[in-house]
Amino acid sequence: MSEQIALTPRAADSAPLPQETVRIGSLRRIAAAKLTFCGLDELRDTVMLITSELLTNAVIHSGGAEVRLTLILRDASLCIAVNDGKAGRVQMRNVDGDAESGRGLALMDTLAKEHGGTWGISENGAETWCSLPLPAEKRAARGSSGSVTLGQD
User: Fold this and answer.
1) CB under 8 Å to 11, separation ≥6 — which residues?
2) What angle (nearest 5°) sits at the alpha carbon of residue 47, between those of residues 26 and 88?
């Protein structure tokens, strides 16, 4: 699955438009439907949370013209990637208990580790990704069939 949303160009310090944040929910629903269609319901809650965090970070922080969400089944794992098309420096923050934001990447790190997955950021900072292993029965059923874009096989 590969879906994108267009964003209105804006200054880096201004908030995204309300309709842009609504589109994050649309992409989440599309991703959830694709997971169900592919028999991966057991990953849905985790993938939806990771997807929300990655998309929200991209929409809020990139200032780019579009954001693309891609879900790919790669051998025995599901890769979730969000690309905002803007090179930059993405890093986890240390935040205190009163902070209203800044926990997204730390949350993704925790979820990835909890599920035996990994995550990372492209060299230029335009893409953030998370890879989660498929449940054991799905891994056995898939074997080593290479990569397939979710919903495209």
Assistant:
1) 63
2) 80
Backbone angles phi, psi at 138, to 5 degrees: -75, -35
Percent of the chain at pLDDT exceeding 70: 81
Task: Record the pTM.
Answer: 0.82
Alpha-carbon distance of 134 to 118, in angstroms, equals 13
**Cα 32 off chain centre by:** 12
What does the chain come to in residues?
153
Q: How far is CA 66 from CA 44, 55, 90, 121, in A?
A: 24, 11, 17, 18
Tokens of 124: 């230029």
Please name the residue that has the structure tokens 């929409």: 59
How far is Cα 143 from Cα 126, in angstroms, rounded to an integer? 31
Rounded to a whole number, what is the largest CA-CA distance in the chain?
48
How far, in Å, CA of 119 to CA of 11, rounded? Answer: 28
Nearest to 132 by CA among 51, 78, 73, 76: 78
Nearest to 21 by CA among 55, 69, 72: 55
pLDDT tens-place string over residues 43-66: 999 999 999 999 988 888 877 888
